[in-house]
Amino acid sequence: MKQYPIGVLLGFNTxxxxxxxxxxxxxxxxxxxxxxxxxxxxxxxxxxAKKIRAAADEAGVVISSLWAGWSGPMEWNFTGGPSTLxxxxxxxxxxxxxxxxxxxxxxxxxxVDKVITHVGFIPENPDHPDFTGVVTxxxxxxRRMKGRNQFFLFETGQExxxxxxxxxxxxxxxxxxxxxxxxxxxxxxKANSLDALDIYGKYVMNTHIKDGNYPTDxxxxxxxxxxxxxxxxxPGIVRKLHELGYEGHFTIEREIKGDQQIADIQNxxxxxxxxxxxxxx
Length: 281
Description:
Structural class: alpha/beta
């Protein structure tokens, strides 16, 4: 039986009790986390990295990657999203690129070799100036990260799978990968998540285990659902990744708060363990 490490998305800011957060990870009987930070000032302070690293080591929790946010306006929808999210909007591209570079340095202080973010609604047209602008920006960042022995991972969802593949090929560095969110392609109405692995499965280096349903109007994303209750086909995705030789972590993400979030994370953990029992070592 093949066993993969299971983790959870863990947010951090200057008010976070990081020891308590890592204890929650252990209490959930999980092995790892993706650390999610949106504060550029924090990225530039090595003392926070030391504090987080010490707490992770004390708890015995692996930090599989750093999910790096950025500053400025953001609208998680189909109307304002294309002009506000990620590196695609030219107005925010330079500032956010600098922030991602700071995040990469912070990751070296943590001892983490993968940095993830949403790049935004990458244009389908490879001649569009925002496509070429994103490619140029990320090629610069990836070359700097290469010198730090790091990988840049695209969070999936806001672009079609073939656009993601085209972007990776256009950038052309060998330290690019994908953080495969099992729900986002569905929530954004871009593709069936399982089928997307036929296009770029070999680039998947980390995951978000999440579920959801397709949009029902042209303005708003689809609705997230507990793992196993949406359209993502998580068992099929896990089996496909296994067939592709995936060796990464399965990181549970549930975008609600409170006791129900904990219950849904536990159910997702048990769902994954059940699928693992069907895999050959």
